[in-house]
UniProtKB/TrEMBL annotation:
<feature type="region of interest" description="Disordered">
    <location>
        <begin position="222"/>
        <end position="245"/>
    </location>
</feature>
<protein>
    <submittedName>
        <fullName>Exo-alpha-sialidase</fullName>
    </submittedName>
</protein>
<dbReference type="Pfam" id="PF13088">
    <property type="entry name" value="BNR_2"/>
</dbReference>
<feature type="compositionally biased region" description="Low complexity">
    <location>
        <begin position="222"/>
        <end position="231"/>
    </location>
</feature>
<dbReference type="InterPro" id="IPR011040">
    <property type="entry name" value="Sialidase"/>
</dbReference>
<dbReference type="InterPro" id="IPR036278">
    <property type="entry name" value="Sialidase_sf"/>
</dbReference>
<feature type="domain" description="Sialidase">
    <location>
        <begin position="35"/>
        <end position="359"/>
    </location>
</feature>
Amino acid sequence: MDGIVRPVSSGRSEAFLASPTVQNHAANLTLLPDGTIACVWFGGTMEGMGDISIYMSRLAPGSDVWSVPEKMSDDAQKSEQNPLLFNAPDGKVWLLFTSQTSGNQDGAVVKRRISEDGGKTFGKVSVLCDTPGTFVRQPVIVNGRGEWLLPVFRCIGLPGTRWSGDVDTAAVLISTDAGASWTMHDVADSIGAVHMNIVPLGGDEMVALYRNRFSEQVLRSRSSDGGRSWSAPEPTDLPNNNSSVQAVRTGDGRIAIVYNHANASMSDDRRLSLYDEIEGDEAETTSAGAEPAGRKAVWGVPRAPLSLAFSSDGGESFPERIDLETGDGFCLTNNSKDGLNREFSYPSILATPDGVIHVAFTYFRRAIKYVRLSSGAV
């Protein structure tokens, strides 16, 4: 895990970014203003623990070595997760991430740091959204009117139970004043649709792709007003295992998506919740009442293979697919220390102007792996 990018086959190169902690998860890639590729993720002992912090590594133009990771957050009382970078129209670079106590995602807030030198250094931490349960994962989009669209998902706790994702919904935070203030716009009929990923199609037309809490299919909705309102999410032809997806529009107009080609119908593996290993005594005191009604989020479906698929019809179908990584994808535990987790998950995808596709993803919750694919390889 030396960060060196090495060719492994025709048109494909790979690297393992240096791992500053036992667990490393939830990568996001961004092309900075000077052409540097930046990767941010979170690391610590285990997701939800107070030592989980944000890290950042850079791949400078012309270099084949990722930089030594830099720690970007350090609140010892909070689990800081799901970072992303945003190149604002004014040249500033924003770092956004969530902050929560233990596994209580329904209490999370969104924090930010802002860079005024193209992502080289960042200012102090401040709160962007203090509505409890607001979570980020996907990039900010600027529409044709100059409005900033930050897709979020709302982690909602049910009375008497600890958060498990059963009734999470999608929303968009919109700013009309360059990020000074934000308003929440909920996506109708979006229970179970999370990690909303907005892909502009041209003009006011946009499509969004979602992770599915019920481990069925990747979901999709459309907007024709620049992202202010959205149709109800509907299933695509891609399976989803209640793990993250990410999509981007390539230079030839296709939508490329990275995801796990798996869902609950393909496996009987299940776990109680994402945080069942760190709940401890607290889980036993949540409630002795009746089990809440409604569908339950499905956790534990294997997170493999990691696949790349393409759509030429705005995300209505994805007939082209290749597997980037294969294995059993075992994820009934988040344990990285003992090497028990074997998932390939939480991918990020970046299409650069030279036609190259860059992908970063979680490898066994132990490291962040980077894959570079030339235009001829896809």
